[in-house]
Structures are given as C-alpha cells and as structure tokens.
Amino acid sequence: MKNENLYKYILGIADNSLILGQRLGELTGHGPTLETDIACTNISLDLFGQVRSYYQYAAKIAGDDRTEDDIAMLRKEREYLNVLLVEQPNTDFAYTIGRQFLFDVYHLAFLKELQKSTDLNLAAIANKSVKEVSYHERFSSDWVKRLGDGTEESNSKMQEAINDLWTYTDELFHQTEADKAMVKAGIGVDVTKLKDGYYKQVNELLEEAALKIPESKYFQKGGKEGIHTEHLGYLLSDLQYMQRTYPNMEW
Amino acid sequence: MSDKKNWPLWEIFVRSKNGLEHRHCGSLHATDAEMALENARDVYTRRNEGVSIWVVESKNITASNPEHNGELFEPAQDKVYRHPTFYDLPDEVKHM
Amino acid sequence: MSEEHIKNLEEQFEARIARDEKIEPKDWMPEKYRKTHIRQMSQHAHSEIVGMLPEGNWITRAPSLRRKVALLAKVQDEAGHGLYLYSATETLGISRDEMYEQLHTGKAKYSSIFNYPTITWADMGAIGWLVDGAAIINQVPLCNTSYGPYARAMIRVCKEESFHQRQGYEIMIKLANGTPEQKEMAQDALNRWWWPSLMMLGPTDDVSVHTEQSMKWKLKRKSNDDLRQQFIDQTVPQADLIGLTIPDPDLKWNEERGSYDFGEIDWDEFWQVVKGHGPMNKERMKARVGAWERGEWVRDAAMAYAEKNKNRKDKQAV
Lengths: 251, 96, 318
Ligand SMILES: [Fe+2]
Ligand SMILES: [Fe+2]
Ligand SMILES: [Fe+2]
Prior knowledge:
The structure holds three protein chains of three kinds. Chain A has helices spanning 4-25, 34-62, 68-73, 84-87, 93-114, 120-148, 152-166, 177-184, 195-208, 231-245. By secondary structure, chain A is mostly helical. The radius of gyration of chain A is 18 Å and the shape is globular. Chain B is built from two helices and three strands; from the N terminus they run E-E-H-E-H. Chain B is of the alpha+beta class. A three-stranded antiparallel β-sheet of chain B has the order 2-1-3, with helices on one face. In chain C, a hairpin with a 4-residue loop joins strand 1 (252-254) and strand 2. In chain C, helix 4 packs antiparallel against helix 7 (148-176) and helix 6 packs antiparallel against helix 10 (224-241). At the A-C interface, helix 2, helix 3, helix 6, helix 7 and helix 10 of A face helix 3, helix 4, helix 7, helix 12 and helix 13 of C.
C-alpha cells in the first residue's frame, strides 16, 4: 500500500471508537434507568458514525476492493490498534462511566487538534466528531461527579473503577511509528503534547468528584501495537461472528 | 416500596426552530435540572426536533382545575366584540 | 359524592368520549377508566422495554456497521417508547417505580411475543417486519384514543415506528435475495415468527374479555380478529414479493371475502406463554430485574448528589 502509514494512522483512531462503541452497545436494554440507557446508546451511535467515516476513508486509501465492514470485522486480534482502555469490560456502571470519562477527555483534546490536520478528510471528520464528543465528555464528567460524590457506596465503586482503569491512561500518549510519520507530515496529532493538559483536567475533576487521584506509576501499554488484554478476543468474536461464519455475503 | 427517594418527574418543552414557541413534548425522570436537560436532549431531540429545551419539575406546575372550567372559560364565549368579524364595514374597504 | 351524582358524572363522561372529546389527567374520570388505562398503558410500556431484549441480543453481532447502527437506533427507540408510555401512565397517579415493581413481580403482563428467542440474524429481520408490523396495526388506531396523554404518546411512537418495519423488511429482502444459506435463514425465521406474530394480536373475539368497554373508550377501535385479518392480508403479498413462504398450508385467497383464509392458531401455545411458560419468560424477567437491581446504587448516588448539590447552592445563596 502506498499510504501505509496514513492507513494505519486512521485505523488507530477509528478502532478506539469501534471498540468503545461496541462496549456501549452491549448495555442497550440493561442500563440503570431508561434515560441513561438512551443516553449511552446515543454515544455508541455517535462513535459508530465516526467509525464508518474513518473506515470508508481508509478503504479508499487502501485502493483495493475492501469495504468498511472488511476493515471493521475481518482483521485478526493483533491487527486492531485501539488503546487498551476502550476494550475494558462493563464490569459495573462505574467502570462504564470511568472508561468513558478517561477516554472522552483524551478524545476531545485529540479531535480539537485533528481539526487542524492538513489532511482535509480527517479534518472534516474531526470537525463533525468534535461536537459529539464534547457532549460525551460533559455526560461522562457529570456522571463521575454523581457517582464519586453521591453515596458512600457509589464513591467506593467509582474509586475502584478509576484505580483499575488508571493503568491504561498513559498509553493514550504513546506514539507509534505511523503516528510519528503522520505528525511529521502535518497530518497527525502529536499526542505527547496532550498529556499534561489531560492529567490536569482529569485530576481536577476527580477532586471535584471527591475521588482520590491514583498514585500508581505502573502503566500498561500495547494496544496501539496490537497487543491487547484478554478481553478483546471475546469482544471480537461477537463483532466478527456473522462475517466469519458466513463469509463473502451481503447483508 | 421503600422510603427511598425516586428521581423526580420533569416536564419537557422543546422549541423546534427559532421563531416558534417552546412546546410541551413529554416528560422524563432526572435528579436535577441539569440532568433533566441532558436527558431531554437524548430522549426528545434524537431526530433533530429541537434547537432549545426548557425543563420544569412537574410538581412546580400549577394547573387550573377542570371543575372550574365553566366559570373560567365560558364567560369568554359570548364576548364576540373581541373578534374583528363583529364589526360591519362597507364592502369597498377590503383590508382592515 | 352520592351514588346518583356519580352516575350523572359517568354519563357526562361517556358522552364526552362519544363526542370525541379527549380526557385529560385532571379531569374527573370513573375509577374503572383510570384502572383500565393504567393496566393497558403500563402493559404497553412494559412490552416496549422487554421488547428491547430479544433484539438487543444481536447488537454486538450485527453483520455490518450499517445494520448495527440501524439496529441500535431501533432498539433505542423502543426504550424511548417505553419512556413516553410510562410518563403518560404516571399522569394517572402511579409512579414508574410502582409499574416496574408490578412487572418484576409478574403482576403486570407484557406482549407474549418477546418470550421467544432470537437465535439467528434473520430474526432481526422477522421481528422488524412482522412484530413491528403487527404492533403498528395495533397502535395506529390508538393515536386517536380517548385519554389525551396516551393519544399524544402514541402519535410520537407511531411516527418513530415507521422506520422499524422497513428496517426489518430490508434485512429480509437482502437475505431472500442472497445465497441459498441466507435465504434458508430468512425462511426459517419466518417459520418461527409467523404464528407468534398472529397470536400477538390477541385472543379471538369470542374469548376476548373487556372488548366492548375498550371500544367505547377508544382503547380499541377494531376487534382482534379484524386486526389479525388486516395483518395477514397486508403481509402475505410482502412475503410473496421476496419469495418467502408463509408457513401455513391452509392459507388461501378467498375471492368472496377479498381476504386470506388461514389455518388454526395454536392457542394452547399462546396461553402457555402468557402464563409465563414460554421459552424465554424467565430469562427476560431475569434480565429486567437484574438491570434494575444493578442500577439501584447508581440511581441512589445520582439522587444523593443532586441533594448535596442543592444544599451547597442554598448555603451559598444565604
Ligand atoms: Fe415501539
Ligand atoms: Fe409498540
Ligand atoms: Fe418498534
């Protein structure tokens, strides 16, 4: 492929939305209230909308006959480039919200930068997505406050989720080779520059939410290189089930 | 049922586009006004139905009593002089 | 209130409905009207949210991204429908929590169709096409029912329903025109969902209770048998069009009636499912109760937070 780096770069962005959207989709019909159920599905729908734009663009760059669905559903585990954070399971609503919040703060800052990309397709997708993700970030921040500063029980559940998920935050700011090449070309976002702002914002909100900022300095990484946690395989077996069982058919 | 506090009910009003009034479109549950706004956005404007939302906690609405409808609303029925058609004008005056 | 006075009010009330006037929440209404409406409307709301489960079952496995977003949006709409209907029912003086309680303890019913399992992707097609199709036939007349909040909720619901059936039928078209394996999947789904869809329109008129009263209150505009006939007459040509076969050897066009004659419905199966012994009754309730119980600490936390916040603001104001 001529534009291998750009292709990989787009997948890296899109896979985050794909996997997170899939996780949220698991919850439809099982939320704590109808209102929150509807809200979480809305976020999932926003993310899948973004995914489709990215993959359609990636398919065009690949220049062969692959489709958005081939990209979404027919890669092997090691070829998914999402960060580990988004593949973590819906252990309980605190994990769902914690994962969303820790990702949204990053996602919004990232998209704001991507709007300036010299790649006009990516800039256009970012322009549209930034509004959606601003809302996600508000939604998840509000919920972190409600759960953190709600009852004793909710505080301890929210704290536990943040503590567990914290280890996946640092990876958001790692750069792959494709990332570096894209930054150099003026197309990609230099995520290393987002790190300070991210932790500042996250920490402030955790404090406001009566939560402790985790002290652990041990972080997990690997998703961006396709080395995932054990959770991803199961998620993919659902996501890919139809395409794998009934290959080469239209739906 | 326990003595637990349930999320209160809110009435939702949506303005479909600028220039039109807010219209009551339904209700939902939320813990406070901020959440009511967020929920209303997710529940009642999924199909582009609105550009502005008002939320009012249902218990804060005072409604007239339908048993008083006679004294409240019927007296207005025979005040025909409040309507332009009450007044006779010569046919030559077309617009007034 | 004296008995005579009540009788008088009741007569006036019935006359208003006969004149096509709407009844609004604060209006006087007979206790029976209130109770019947609470029962039917909450049952309707329950059906919407239990109905999310069989389709929700395939969201993570939808075969393409396009199908996935359509299904997500569809199932989300059903949550919205449940919400509109619960809210409308609350105007009659029952809380959503009380209605949930009735659902979770088995006191309240929901549509029996949702107690069948969704075992292949084609079931998403069959449900949208047949189940939403039958639901629309049931629901459109309710847009004009006598209780204002119910009628308004139904107008909203019906507007949103319009894409549901198309979504399902489109899935079926694709399968029916696909590989032999896909076509077989579609036919199998039609075979499994056809009869339950007919049952969904309710018991036959000769055994159906409350019908006369419901007609008067416009909770029902047509009898179950009429609705069923309408559904069959409208659906059979749609099956023909895509080359699928309705699983009823007795199905035959009746020139004289201008309608299809159809075979015997297995009402024993219907009553078994209604009484709680369908293939998925227990699972569906477990899923609903589970979600509710797992959500309890979340709901409590949000409420506690709102109260704390209010106190903080009140203090600042002093
Ligand atoms: Fe519905
Ligand atoms: Fe319905
Ligand atoms: Fe529907």
